[in-house]
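Per-record layout

source: Biomphalaria glabrata
name: Apoptosis inhibitor 5-like isoform X2
length: 443
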Amino acid sequence: MLFGTEDSHELSGVQSSMFSLFSINLKGALEGIFGRLLQISEEEDNSEELMGVIRERLLRFLVVKLKQMGDLEKECEDLIMEQCKKLLEDVTKDEFIAVMELLRSLKTMTTVQSRQQLVEMVVDQAALDEPFEASDPDCVDRLLHCIRSASPMFSKNVHSRPFVQYICDHVLPVLKDVVSPDEETNIQLEVLKTFAEISEFAGDVDKLDKRLNTIFSALLEFMPLPPSDEKEESTTEEPKLNFSQVECLIFAFHQLARKSPGFLTDEVNGERLKDFRVRLQYIARGSQICIKRLKEALQGTTGDALKTEENKKRIVALKLFTNITMLVKDLMHNPPSYKVALTLSWRPSREIKPAESNETAKTLSPGQKRTITPITYDDANGKKSTPKQARTLYQPPGGKFSDKAGTFTNFSRGGNRGGRGRGNFRARGRRGMSGSGFYQNKL
């Protein structure tokens, strides 16, 4: 009850006393704190607001102090995991975030089994077995918070499949109707960014072709066909393309379509691929124009000048258009390829380690340039076309030692060919607590 005090000096003294108990009997102290936390959630009287404050401060105290203690014994971590499961039966938004932060800080989370267990806990909180209400901002916000809480746990062994499948089935079809919790957020783009981030670790998705078709349809909404010649002549305005949305959806499609290459290449899908390539060519042209302009704007900019807000945005935009170009190159192959690996534009780039840098240097001789594969397009006859380059011919050595070299005959043909339903967490709900209803089931 002392955690409910409003005096900062008293509160500091209470926290110091609690931390001292940790050094005497950590397990006993944890049992006492969690016992009180669970007791608060069951109490229903006129002081519920005070109980909520105490609960929130206790949780924050646990998160901060346990991190300071470093590695804990397995027995204590098992106790924390078990008690947090009980806490998650009835949590507010802030409490949910605090519990997730506490669990992710445990040493046991380095094991696949523990990370999978945590993901399953979040899946249960997200209520993926209930309908998605796009018009309910609480429902939307809850889903995004759950996914972001679980995202650090996803890997090639711990999959995001439940969330990927839910977004494909319930969110993408009604993306235009999704309502934002606040006016400043482009919620549709935030949903797509979250979806793109988790698509990399989707694992084996059920009914893959059906869900791929949903992603593909959503992608085509942001990838229009090029205008006809008549329209191009009648207007000088550049088409307004939503490149940010395209990056998210084309990345997610690229991640999942590699597991079902026939989605584009099967004979029955010939028209689909032909139409898709026309759209890819159009979006690629727009990307390359933007890349050129951004490079011109950044040319000669170094040091602190690159750290201005405007140039930071240009750098992110350059990364975005480069990502789209790389993905288009992969998909324009015949058959489409799914080999390129990249970092989404809004995420920090992976730093290259010195060892990796040295390996890269070994592969290139001094003065040698990296080979850049151009994007190939279908011409009017359906054939591939790329800019032709003349081959470098062999030149015999000169001087007195080359008199017997004879005449060189060129046999080269020259050139090369390019080839929950109500927006609340699963919980009983604690009546009267400020903000608590957001993450609780309605009675």
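summary: The mean pLDDT is 78. The first helix runs from residue 8 to 24.
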